[in-house]
Design a protein that fits this description.
Number of strands: 14
Structural class: alpha+beta
Number of domains: 4
Shape: elongated
């Protein structure tokens, strides 16, 4: 159960989503012929807040929470309807009310913490790659404008700078309509048809055959959006970058959703990026001893296991998607390396040494 919020005398405890403070709503309410406009304004704000946090409210329970009669609740609901809030009567043994979905967005009520959380989320939205940067900036300006001074200071004190990943450049922007279409297909359980720009042929602008995919999850990882779906033709799970998808219409038939291997989408995605088909582990894992202090190894070990053997000697258990990549990663430590195992890692070092010698003109 959620207790009704406390409304302050000056109406500064709340922020609405349409450029109105609670004083503006109260001004509208005070034009009505009521006995005590201040008390009624506060009660309407409390009623609106309650309706926003629960789907259905029995009329008697609302009356109890607000400390008024059932008749007063009915009058207050009528006032909210006059202000544009789609409050619908719910039939049943107890009767009740529901804040329904309307054709237009009425003013929404936020307490202090909700208003600050909304402002922070809008600032972070710039780095999501969802193509909503301009809209988020406008929404943030609207929310900030109607905030009380104490909340505006908290929001202004938060400085967020989006930084591009080293060596990767700017993250590609995804059309918001594409993200919405993908999400809708996931919720509806409808098969998608789309053309996909292969990373192996980035300059290929010719027509591409449509793929058939049963979409299950839309996730964002490292500033990029990915669609995770089941390919019925290959009978396997596939991961697609959303910015490379060109949707075809109409969608395909409905399908029965299935569970990703392991049941956890985060673990599944991490495993696939490591080149693993089942478990969240690297395909190639090796153990070495480095002639370096553990303090100098740990910052660059990623998800590897670091064990200090002495002042300048460290054991490192680390993985990568291939043996060649693992050998190259370890070579970056620029120190003597003793390979404990397996033999595949030692062979990868030998091959890396051969290629490096050839590049240096030594053979």
């Amino acid at each position: 159960m959620v207790s009704p919020p406390k409304a302050s005398g000056d109406g500064s405890d709340y922020v609405t989503s349409t450029g109105q403070g609670t004083s503006a709503i109260r001004d509208s309410l005070e034009t009505m012929p009521i006995a005590s406009s201040t008390v009624t304004s506060r009660r309407l704000l409390s009623l609106l807040s309650l309706l926003q946090v629960r789907r259905d409210w029995p009329g008697g329970l609302l009356a109890q929470r607000l400390g008024v009669s059932d008749r007063t609740v009915r009058r207050d609901v009528d006032r909210l309807r006059e202000l544009g809030y789609p409050v619908r009567a719910v039939k049943g043994p107890e009767g009740g009310y529901r804040l329904d979905v309307g054709n237009e967005l009425p003013p929404l009520l936020f307490d202090d913490e909700q208003a600050v959380a909304l402002a922070v989320a809008l600032r972070i939205a710039v780095g999501t790659g969802a193509g909503i940067e301009e809209a988020a900036a406008r929404a943030l300006a609207t929310v900030r404008q109607v905030m009380p001074a104490r909340l505006r200071q908290r929001v202004d004190a938060l400085e967020i700078t989006a930084v591009e990943s080293a060596g990767r450049g700017a993250d590609p922007q995804v059309d918001t309509d594409v993200l919405l279409a993908l999400s809708t297909a996931i919720r509806s359980g409808e098969e998608l048809r789309f053309a996909y720009q292969s990373p192996a042929r980035p300059d290929d602008t010719g027509p591409r055959p449509a793929r058939r995919v049963q979409p299950h999850h839309l996730v964002v990882r490292g500033g990029r959006w990915y669609l995770i779906g089941w390919d019925p033709e290959r009978r396997d799970w596939r991961i697609y970058r959303a910015d490379r998808i060109t949707l075809r219409i109409p969608n395909g038939p409905r399908f029965t959703p299935r569970q990703v291997p392991g049941g956890d989408i985060a673990t599944f995605l991490s495993a696939r990026f490591k080149g693993s088909e089942a478990t969240n582990t690297w395909r190639c894992r090796g153990e070495v001893i480095l002639d370096l202090p553990a303090a100098k190894v740990a910052p660059f070990a990623g998800d590897g296991v670091v064990e200090e053997l002495g002042p300048a000697r460290t054991r490192l258990l680390i993985g990568s998607w291939s043996w060649a990549a693992l050998a190259a990663t370890l070579a970056r430590f620029d120190t003597e390396i003793e390979v404990i195992g397996p033999v595949s890692l030692r062979d990868a070092f030998a091959d890396l040494s051969r290629r490096a010698g050839h590049t240096a003109g030594l053979g």
